[in-house]
Fold these 2 entries.
Entry 1:
Amino acid sequence: MKLGLVVDLDTCVGCHGCATACKQWNTSGTIGPLSDENPYGKDPNGAWLNRIRTYEVDDHPNSKTVNMPMSCMHCDNAACVTVCPTGASYKREEDGIVLVDQDKCMGCNLCSWACPYGARELDPHQGTMKKCTLCVDRIYDERLPEDERKPACVMTCPTKSRVFGDFDDPDSEVSKLVRDRAGKQLMPELGYEPVNTYLPPRNKPVVETYEPKSIKATVKGWVNKVIAR
Amino acid sequence: MHPAFSVLVFTVMSGAGYGLITLMILGHLLGVPQLQDSNVLLSGGILGFVLISGGLLSSTLHLANPKNAWRSFSRFKTSWLSREAVFAVLFYPFVLAYLANVWFNGAEVNGAAVVAGYGAAALAMVTLFCTSMIYASLKTIRQWNTSLTPVNYIALGLMSGSLLLAAVQATVAGDLSSVLHNLAIGLVILGAAVKLIYLFWIGKPAGSTINTATGFTQASVRLLDQGHTANGFLNNEFGYTVEANRLMRLRVLMVGIAFVLPFLLLLTSSAGLLALAAILTIIGLLVERWLFFAEARHVVRLFHGDQRV
Amino acid sequence: MTSQANVIPVQSGLPEFEDRANQETKYTTCYMCACRCGIKVTVEDNKVRFIQGNPNHPINKGVLCAKGNSGIMKQYSPAKLSKPLLRKPGTERGAGEFEEISWDQALDMLEKRLRHIRATDPKKLAYFTGRDQMQALTGMWASQFGTINWAAHGGFCSVNMAAGGLYTMGHAFWEFGDPDWDNTKYFMMWGVAEDHSSNPIKLGLKKLKERGAKFVAVNPVRTGYQAIADEWVAIRPGTDAVLALSMVHVLLKNQLVDEEFLIRYTNSPQLVVNTPGQKGDGLFYRGESGEPQVWDLVKEQFVDANLPDINPALFGEFTMPDGTPVRTAMNIMLEKYLDDEYAPENAAKECGVKAEDIERMALEMAHVAFKESITIDVEWTDWAGRKQDKFIGRPVSMHAMRGISAHSNGFQTCRAIHLLQVLLGTIDCPGGHLAKPPFPKHVPPGIKPAKDMAPNTPLKSPPLGFPTCPEDLVINEDGSPKRIDKAYSWDAPISCHGLMHMVISNAVKGDPYEIDTLMLFMANMAWNSSMNTAQTIDMLCEKKDDGEYKIPFIVCSDAFNSEMVAFSDLVLPDTTYLERYDTISMLDRPISEPHAACDSVRIPVIQPDRDVMSWQEVMVEMAGRLGFPAFSTPEGERKYEGYKDFIVNFEKEPGIGFLAGYRGKDGDKSLRGEPNPRQWEAYAENEGFFEMHLDLNQRYMRHANLDYLTLAKEAAWVGSTNQIVIELYSEKLQTFRLAGQGLYDGPMPTEEHHKERLVKYFDPLPFYYMPLEEQRIDRDEYPFHAVNQRPMFMYHSWDSQNAWLRQIMSQNYLFMNRVAGEKMGIEDLSWVWVESHNGKIRVQVKLMEGTNEQTVWTWNAIAKRGGAWGLSDDANEATDGFLMNHLISELLPQKGDKVDRVTNSDPVTGQAAWYDLRVKITPAAPGETGAWPTFSALKPQPNAKPSPDMLSYTSHENVNLKRPMSDILTRGEK
Ligand SMILES: Nc1nc2c(c(=O)[nH]1)N[C@H]1C(S)=C(S)[C@@H](COP(=O)(O)OP(=O)(O)OC[C@H]3O[C@@H](n4cnc5c(=O)[nH]c(N)nc54)[C@H](O)[C@@H]3O)O[C@H]1N2
Ligand SMILES: Nc1nc2c(c(=O)[nH]1)N[C@H]1C(S)=C(S)[C@@H](COP(=O)(O)OP(=O)(O)OC[C@H]3O[C@@H](n4cnc5c(=O)[nH]c(N)nc54)[C@H](O)[C@@H]3O)O[C@H]1N2
Ligand code: SF4
Ligand code: SF4
Ligand code: SF4
Ligand code: SF4
Ligand code: SF4
Ligand SMILES: [Mo]
């Protein structure tokens, strides 16, 4: 299995719902707590596993605003794992999820240096590396209803711009979306083979205009029709 | 990249220590006349030992969770940092055996000295190489992801080591060895050359841009909002930015202190000035290492609005 | 609900991550904003583990927004109030010196004060509520108290949308209706950043995008929803009416209107008297018993317009039997909108949208409406009892909000948009704009505002209602206002939601009179909900000569240490939304969806750890203590034990109560039924909400759908099953205009400016006029429009205490178009001065592409006062964030005329004109950085624990997923 997310840039409105859902699930989840420094003071700053950025693409007047959520891509070629000296970082063989064993991390930051996608953040209080777990503690939890065995960010996204699934299965929704919508990887040139895939904005729908028969530029042009009330 | 002081101290000190010990042992074992003096060897050895150990201790200061530092030996299979740790530790029995041998048996070359000495020298170089590979292996930082990085680390480690060695020798023995003197001059020239090549090389534009980072390769892309108003871990770690002018000035300063001044001082033959040259080099290399970090631009910056790295 | 992903096979070998035996899940309703999503909360040890969307809930269907997902940090907030507070005797208001008192003391004190006011002069109590959701209760409480000085936030929020819709078609945008997300093919969104329907809009937009429907966003700024729009129309603020009416022009010119719809469902064939300058001009030609007339094309005579099976002429000029000339309302519309003023070429100059784009969009919508119409084959009965075999849908829909309403021309602009919708026949039809029960109502709803008060006597009608003519105004004989906010006066005759933004200013001036007690619930009037914040703060502290405060006593109910707390004399700490019982009632604005009548409750999921009491309980307690008739037995005893008891047993009329679900002795009746003693339990069992799907035949054309209207009457949503006739032409407005012209048989204004305003702005047909502030300033001196947007992840002021949300944004910037900024030499992130006719502020700029060149904007309510909300004195909100409110005056720009004292509001509805603001921008001097003005930090509450420097929230000890040592030692490169 190769589990990961598809993110639809055509519909993401940048609401940050997935970011805070992730924060609340995971702060009490297996990777948690996710600490926050100066939570009520100057420059509040904590560990997040999912961040939303907004870009403007192209120049006025052709420009477009694009919201881009980013969390760990669970790369196939995850250098964040190979650089880790303690073995805290690892990629699960069974599903490709990249995790950090909190008991083993020494907080050297090297894995975050190796990650091109800014997916790893050091916890300011715990001193260990935090990252997206693909909600491993949800997706396999039998005690959750079947419908809820998916990542917190996916469940909550109000525009359904995040889809979770198995990229190894050609019939999965994620695989189909990637095919149908020409899904893209970010920074493919670095060779990390990120699993998470981004769906580019769709082409705009074309609507025909009504071809009017006659133009009634004045009141006089209108004629009553017999229409029963 | 944010230059962490502990890491700068670590790489410069241990680099100099490994260089010093390697050159010293090799000189001793290969029969350089002025290095057949146990006082010189013990002094150099102890200095190198202190530099290396101090450096390694310093390196643990940047760990956020040092209680797990011991675990860093476990991923020798893939991690250059783990390899560095393993080799750094392996180095100790060899260097200690070598130094004990000198302590008890003097400078005479015997079987134990050969085994321990060559072992220590090899492990010193391997450790230095591993350290450099920690940086060189990162595809995310183009300025590091080059074979120039290990060449730099090793050349500068040997260079600073050679200066220290010459200074120790001159100070302890009272007269300067021309072999060591010439070696130092040669290594300073080599070091400077390597560094200048590196500086020239990193001036070239990189492959990744904000366009490849965001997947919008057909048009200009500008960051509107990074999703949080105060700086976070990524900003602090990777967003380190120094003004171009200041970088230029620091480069000149670095070349001056690390290479040109020591070189000029080396042209005299005074032991005192040699020591000064060595100290200047170390200071210069601290600046060099600072620049190595400050000029390294991680690709995450692209997501935060940099157009290229 | 189908799961989005294939379910992943369960894996063995994973640890049991959490002890579920120790956890409970409970259902309640989110209140991080007024969208009111259903939530499922997992709790352990009285701590929140996880808040998720309830997938069965009609509003959010399982999703949550950023705020809803941060409820943990709201519950955790160090700013929570913990005990009633009394301003320390001898200290100044605003100094924030309080002593803690017991609830008994607090309630006794309040009771004594209120009892005296009620027995002497009830209007001396002004009771205003902010972003609350319990106006049914607070409004009823005020009526029972007997003061007309009550209103909720609607007047400064979006009364223009409510009134614009209710006076046109009986429902509206805002919380009263939704686009038909499932069927619409062309969606136009006007001036919406987030709105109350925040999750439903997002769910809906996704549906549109999946279907390939076209989404057009009319907005000067392109972020959020507009970012995913297929077409972004970068309109110049305040000119939407020009755009809408220009599209109307295009449709009319091309004869592309739904004539059938107009004839059957609107008043456009009705005949309007055409006698300019005479009494009766512009009113309908009415029959003997007052029924409006149309010309029947077949019978060739005037007939009662409301009869079925007649054939009204849509066009034409006629003569009444007495010789009076009349013409159809449609004729007037043609004349008005075919005028060159609204031709795309001219409109383009005003609103900045290209003429060809205006034309194209109008013709695109016509194409979708008329060439891509849809039918739903369901038999239904129309208002006249005639069977119809299908619903015809014209799948064009629209939604609009504060970008329209927060302008002083917003009412007419909103009506202009409705006109466009109606001409296309897209009201309450498949694919169009759908009403949400209990809407639609008759135009307008049949409640008149109360006018008279007497000691110890409830009002005869609610304080707020819907005037239809000058007689309904709440004014004295001499024309002066009776209400403290001057609602329903000549300043703003149909201000159906009051003018909360004027209360403090008026009360301090004693204009129209002084009050004794100002009671505020959930309103941060000392900060972000006031215009002119700095001056409002001064006003709150202003004293009379005798040293007494001009507003002698201020009571505030807040759950948190907001800026308002410091300016109150008595602070009553509320529970949080996770700690209280509450109802989102059908008597208010419930959570209904277009095809289902729904309401919901809040049920505590966390036990408060503080000495707090919900405002609901306080209301019922005070009502009992003061012996309000509706809260007392005939013997004068207290009737209700508390809020829960009240909700179950109170009946507004037989069988109708606050909650519409699970009524009847056994809980099996919906909408109407006797009280059910187990109603709360029934809601709890049903995940906190009640949902009654309408039958297929009741789902569309409800203004004229007998099957629906019968249900609506039974449920007391409407008073009769008569057709709800859409009023494109508003005779009600015309009565006010006639009063302005001096041609009315009834109350008429005496002041010249009132006359002018009535004549000009009470046009019975929607039209464009320049926003009032713009009319009164030098437009060249203040070249930029300045507006706000709501961030999707912050609710007004109350989320800066949220440790997670404030990380997303703790400073706001002034956004400016890059080209405009660069022209002025303004660089990204530089500091500038922004100056309006009312004041100036210093702010930091960000340049961007997606902003109209004449507009600057910022995120709303990010700035905070240090010390408030548990924030440190140097929090970014306090040092770098800014409020635009300082620039906005509650009065119109001063010119030395009578209008100087008139509210900065829509002249029709009194809607606060926040977005009329015009500013000039100048670069700050080098070294001038940081926001200005800044305010001294507020004091912490007594006994407050300091806010922590580090936070590691978790509801249990985290269970790590361990990597086996053998794996660490043996695994190689991939
Ligand atoms: N997250 C969140 N949700 C909220 C709130 C909140 O504070 N936070 N507040 C709630 C409340 S009380 C309200 S009233 C609603 C308001 O919800 P919205 O109506 O979405 O309110 P605003 O954010 O004021 O958005 C106004 C939009 O209109 C645009 N605009 C400004 N002037 C014009 C104009 O002249 N023409 C056009 N076409 N557009 C214009 C602005 O750029 C902005 O995008 O939101 C509610 N929902
Ligand atoms: N410049 C500018 N100003 C604006 C607007 C704008 O667009 N631009 N928008 C205006 C609009 S539309 C609105 S609706 C107003 C909103 O203005 P307000 O109604 O004042 O809204 P809030 O800031 O949300 O907060 C009201 C208070 O409610 C308190 N509160 C929160 N939860 C609870 C609770 O559970 N119980 C109690 N008792 N209190 C609670 C908060 O602590 C806060 O003090 O702002 C207006 N102000
Ligand atoms: S929740 Fe969905 S729409 Fe919101 S930011 Fe995340 S991906 Fe985008
Ligand atoms: S995104 Fe970064 S952290 Fe995640 S697998 Fe790839 S390299 Fe590792
Ligand atoms: S920070 Fe932790 S997980 Fe990352 S490389 Fe270092 S030890 Fe491994
Ligand atoms: S999958 Fe889970 S951990 Fe990863 S971003 Fe989504 S919520 Fe966060
Ligand atoms: S939109 Fe968000 S904050 Fe508002 S009620 Fe829904 S989940 Fe709560
Ligand atoms: Mo509002």
Entry 2:
Amino acid sequence: MSRLILRRLAIGVPTLLIIITLSFFMMRLAPGGPFDQERPLPPEIRRNVEKAYHLDESLVQQYLRYLGGLLQADFGPSYRTKDFTVGQLLVQGAPASFKVGGLAVLLATVLGLLAGIVAALRHNSWADYSVMGLAMVGIAIPSFVMAPLLSLIFGVYLAWLPAGGWGNGALPFLILPVVSLALPQVAQVARLARGAMIEQLNANYVRTARAKGLRERLVLLRHALPGAMLPVVSYLGPMTAALVTGSVVVETIFSIPGIGRYFVQAALNRDYTVVMGVVIVYACLIIVLNLIVDLLYGLIDPKVRTV
Amino acid sequence: MQSRRLRAIGISAALALLAWAGGAPLPAQAEMVYRIATMGEPKSLDPHFVSGTWENYVVGDAFMGLLTDAADAKPIPGAAESWTISDDGLTYTFKIRDHTWSDGVPVTADDFVFSFQRILDPKLAAEYASLLYPIKNAEAYNTGKLTDPNQLGVRALDPKTLEIKLEGPTGYFLELMTHYTAWPVPKHAIEKFGADWIKPGNFVGNGPFTIVEWTPNAQIVAVKNPKFYDAANVKLDKVIYYPDEDRNAVTKRFRAGEIDLADDFASEQIDFLKRELPNETKIAPYLGTYYYVVNVTRKPFDNPAVRRALSLAIERDAITGKVLKTGEIPAYGVVPPGTGDWGDGYQPEWAKLSYPERVAEAKSLLKQAGYGPDNPLKLELSYNTSENHKRIAVAVQSMWKQLGVQAELVNREVKVHYDVMKENQFDIARAAWVADYNDPQDFLYLLETRTGVQNYGRYSNPEFDQLMRAQGQERDAAARLDVMKQAERIAMSEDAWLPIYYYVSKNLLSQKVEGYETNTKQVHRSRWVSIKE
């Protein structure tokens, strides 16, 4: 087990380096720079600004300087947010994204599994059809429709919850963003869980368990459920990465100060260092989450454990 | 018994949760809080690094220049209680008001000398320093041709007297002193904290409010500065600024009562807002011009007749009335009406013609230039990504189609768009300009030859340039205005731009807010505002 972890982390480092290198150079291919604005800078001032940020050096020099900074955990200055470094922005923004995303993962997994299992047990009944119908609707409605709708209903018309804002992460401010982030995922998880569960319920070993006279609850919980969890667990990795790193849409619509919003603002402003910072956080998360998923696999599936 | 106890526990848990969720308990005496949604995250709260209207909201409540903005944005005495101007208009002597920074240290003429030297220091690389070039030697020092800051035309005659010498009589100089580039920054705090002086905790300002919290992308909080010279007349206890780039989200939060003033709303919501929130929707003329710039270095756009034909065929009323519908004013000139003492905007003779007459005239002009059904004029019309820019471009495309002009629409992301314009790589492109200070010169300079890359179409006319130089030397305000009107007439007689409309500001204002006045500068200082319960 620990060898697996070590090996995977060892592969993670070059992967990260490739990601950093590619995004660093690709970003610079985009026309325009962080200091282009409508009232152009006098050339002398522009030179001074670029010098202050080392933008006058060759790309390779800048790249090496950036890597050197990273080794010292220095993500560099932000070009557009002068009073904060990229590190400070990430420390400020990541917890907001993690909080909303983490709660959404939890909600999506619990609700999705429950709905999926209920649908599987009542296979081809009205309960199955209605759960799966709702799931299809959930998948089909994108969050940029769902989020404003929820905000309008619960924030403006009913005034039960804030229509937007962060409120330092207090619960009422979290509910709508978490729900709008989780809904499409609930549906996905439910579909996966239902399909896997139906398959397991028809499997030979479940039939054997039933033939032995085991109580239905035991058959379900001990035999069928672990098998049904597998596709859900493998989906959990990418889903968590996607939700936790901040949904641009949901963060923008609810004015959440998360890193997803930084990412888009920074890309539009050519704030190279902020884009890089978010990319690195994102890449690290995916590497770690994939590792966790593999470890979970080992716990659930005996076939993987022996490898 | 047991179930009832459980229920009691449940209820108290819920209450505890609610209390936790609601944050701090209500204060004994309700604070007067004003909540503003601005258009985005400030780049900095240091006035020397500010460059946008969204930053001006915040920084303008925390600092005060020699002159400052009244509720209607007219310049009034600020850090200077009075001033005198020399007969040649080149020397301004300001009497600094007896007042202190928010930490109690007196504001002196030295602070102003320090501030002007700081923002013009080439090493600071302040992006907006060029606005101060009317000050003697400012440009030379800022661009490194002069290295001694004491050569700048700014000096302290005594702690309460500041003298500023100018390069030429600058008609708008007092107006310029209300601009953030001219605001004082605290020498003592900057020497103590360096770049961190602007951080909450270290922050020192001389304005009505003091910044106490800044959470990027979430909120900035400022509280009343009890040391402000006019604190007795400041009614608010606290101002919260929410930076938000999504106008639809802001409108929803406004409707939910979470915001008192929302800067701008999405145009497509105008019908809804006028119906549902008629008293809250504030639309006012704004100092901005939306125009299509023509690249006069490319054939056939070097031919004024072709430019005239294209301008004739743009039905401005249809664009403002049917496409935008937010009260924008059809534009035929460079300078928006209401800029300084400008009065009405420029109206060419042909604007009086009926639209069919204009189209007929345009067709004949194009025919003379050698274009017709067999040889249609083909061009590229570029705009930056935005729903409104697209709708206007599509409308103009179809208006030009009647002339047989085949316009291909090219959409680019904003940074790329402006890059292409500065490099002069376009036929016709969408552009806009919003005034930095309330003076016609701030629009007309865009067409001067010496403006360089920001004169996107590279329009160049010696007579125009000559008039613009003359206005810089003219002392008499009325005569100066005349010179600039003449200059605009020349540029428009040659259709250097195809102006489309003059901007309006679009705000949502809660009916609880008192003391707010709409104005063409769209500058709204919180010190004039109060909230009625």
